[in-house]
TrEMBL record:
GO terms for molecular function: hydrolase activity, hydrolyzing O-glycosyl compounds; xyloglucan:xyloglucosyl transferase activity. Its EC number is 2.4.1.207. Belongs to the glycosyl hydrolase 16 family. Residues 1-27 form the signal peptide. SUPFAM superfamilies: Concanavalin A-like lectins/glucanases. One of its GO terms (cellular component) is apoplast. It is an enzyme of class 2 (transferase). This is Xyloglucan endotransglucosylase/hydrolase. The active site is at residues 104, 108. Keywords: Apoplast, Cell wall, Cell wall biogenesis/degradation, Disulfide bond, Glycoprotein, Glycosidase, Hydrolase, Secreted, Signal, Transferase.
Length: 256
């Protein structure tokens, strides 16, 4: 899992077919805390910095990333996904360090034909190696309104649609996803130092994330999602990973 002393830099991207990555970590205003990294006019900051939209057409996608790097925190982002026929598009956000041996936590939303559910694809990289994919069909419509997606990372935590069968209908372009109301209670990492130390929470009003974990109710909700909506789990893919070669974390029952 991601190493404790490796700061993660967030970025957000909308792309098509190939693995697309979107990530985020920051707080406040999109103008102040993020840089648009590519896509020209396809990425727009609106409403005085409170809303950001990313669009994809046949020529290019678009993306942005945080100006700061962070070491531990809670990140909340509201996202409204591409509506209608979104086959071949991927909208996501991720936390990632830099370099060939990077650590990364991915949330990727795989579009599909109108009426079919979105698929949430997750993956974790450690020391540059991923192969820890899980997939879930979303049990709600993520395109009708904004939904909040959260990630908690603290010292206690070490860390193409249907395989390309459904092609992108470019007559529906541009495909646009929207981001709003982001919030990050997180420790800024700069010049080798963290804004949080052992004796303070970095000035946050709410620092409960520093010791947050799943309680019994949270574990029950997770099991419900796994039982009802999980469509792929790398820990049970014995064709890909013969039992003797399963990743170490798969030996723990909570990953099965």
């Amino acid at each position: 899992m991601p190493s404790h002393n490796n700061p993660l830099l967030c970025s957000v991207v909308l792309i098509v077919i190939s693995w697309c990555l979107v990530s985020l970590v920051s707080a406040g205003n999109f103008y102040q805390d993020f840089d648009i990294t590519w896509g020209d006019h396809r990425a727009q900051i609106l409403k005085g910095g409170q809303l950001l939209t990313l669009s994809l057409d046949k020529a290019s996608g678009s993306g942005f990333k945080s100006k700061n790097e962070y070491l531990f925190g809670r990140i909340d982002m509201q996202i409204k996904l591409v509506p209608g026929n979104s086959a071949g598009t991927v909208t996501a956000y991720y936390l990632s360090s830099e370099g060939p041996n990077h650590d990364e936590i991915d949330f990727e939303f795989l579009g599909n034909l109108s009426g079919d559910p979105y698929t949430l694809h997750t993956n974790v990289f450690t020391q540059g190696k991923g192969n820890r994919e899980q997939q879930f069909h979303l049990w709600f419509d993520p395109t009708k309104t904004f939904h909040t997606y959260s990630l908690v990372w603290n010292k206690q935590h070490d860390w193409a649609t249907r395989g390309g069968l459904v092609k992108t209908d470019w007559t529906k372009a541009p495909f646009t996803a929207s981001y709003a109301n982001f919030k990050a209670n997180a420790c800024v990492w700069s010049a080798g130092k963290s804004s949080c130390d052992a004796n303070n929470s970095g000035g946050f009003n709410d620092a409960t994330w520093q010791n947050q974990g799943l309680d019994a109710a949270g574990r029950n909700r997770l099991r419900w999602v796994q039982q009802k909506f999980m469509v792929y789990n790398y820990c049970t893919d014995l064709k890909r990973f013969p039992k003797a070669k399963l990743p170490d974390e798969c030996k723990h029952s909570r990953f099965l």
